[in-house]
Hints:
Strand order of the largest sheet: 1-2
Radius of gyration: 21 Å
Shape: globular
Strand content: under 5%
Distance between the termini: 12 Å
Number of helices: 19
Order of helices and strands: HHEHHHHHHHHHHHHHHHEHH
Amino acid sequence: MVGTMALLPPFIRAARTSRIPARVPHPAPGLPADDEVLLDAPDDRLGPALVGAGCGDPAPAAVLLAETRARGEWELRDRYVVRLAFFAHARPEWFQEWRTAAPHDPDALLVGAQLAVDRGWGSPARAELLREVSPAITATAHGDHRDPVPWRLALDHARGSRAGHKYFGELWEAAVRRAPHHYGCHVAALRYLAASYHGSHGECFDFADRAAQDAPRDSLVQALPVRAALAYLTDGCGPEVPRARLDAAADRAIALSARFPAADPWPAQIRNLLAFVLVRLNRYADALDQLRLTGPYATSFPWDRAGEEPLGVFLRVRAGLVAGVRAVELGGAGHPHSGHAGRARSADH
């Protein structure tokens, strides 16, 4: 697990507590104030569904997921299913009403299967509980034959239940037949590789690089190599990955980020992930650029990997980046926007 201090520029770590406040009202031009930053903020479509659920009304959520299914909005559908299942875990009444009123609704079945998998993952008896969830996942796969989200869920389930490689491969083939570049399915496969071949980061990078090379330029799969970089930089085991490969993964994700508008919740998680990795690579100016593009949208992942409240980690790292980049500018230690000044080897982390 990565501590906050490990994410701060090394030349300001020692003085962080005395010189860098935990909250900076106006941190720097182009950055929102701390009290304007939102954690895991829903977009304009998910927000009303969550408000409705909070009031005990499942109808907005049902309409939202039906729309994503009808329009083939698989990436959005995947995100919404995860968020609605998370909400149902904490506030189950609205979801229970939905299931009672429409027991065969494919969207309710999908949220229910996601909820069951999430609960299984949180149990010490994870593998056994997840095996019991198999019928629910199978039921979701009988919905829209185009929908890859049940197969992403099946891939996550297979990892948690320690399924063999042959079975996982069959699930993977079924998933990519439906949506060859679905980001959620690719992340699930990358996680399976990491869990099955612990420490074999080269294999994970090979998979991620091939997928990104085959994907369209604006596909979220372009960020898959930077997911592999995150796993390597926070794992601490296995052979060293060449620094050039880590930088190439980050540069590919930077190019993807540039294709999206600034301060947009859609690419927020990609940008938060990218900023985290760039900090670990000592590319502080590049990381700060991504936080400017992110605007007010902080995401729990990956800041929750620092073992603290993620919004607090995000704000402290952001404050440290501002101070660190200013220190470089004042000290003349390389151009802060080159992205290449003062980089550390991956082994330093």
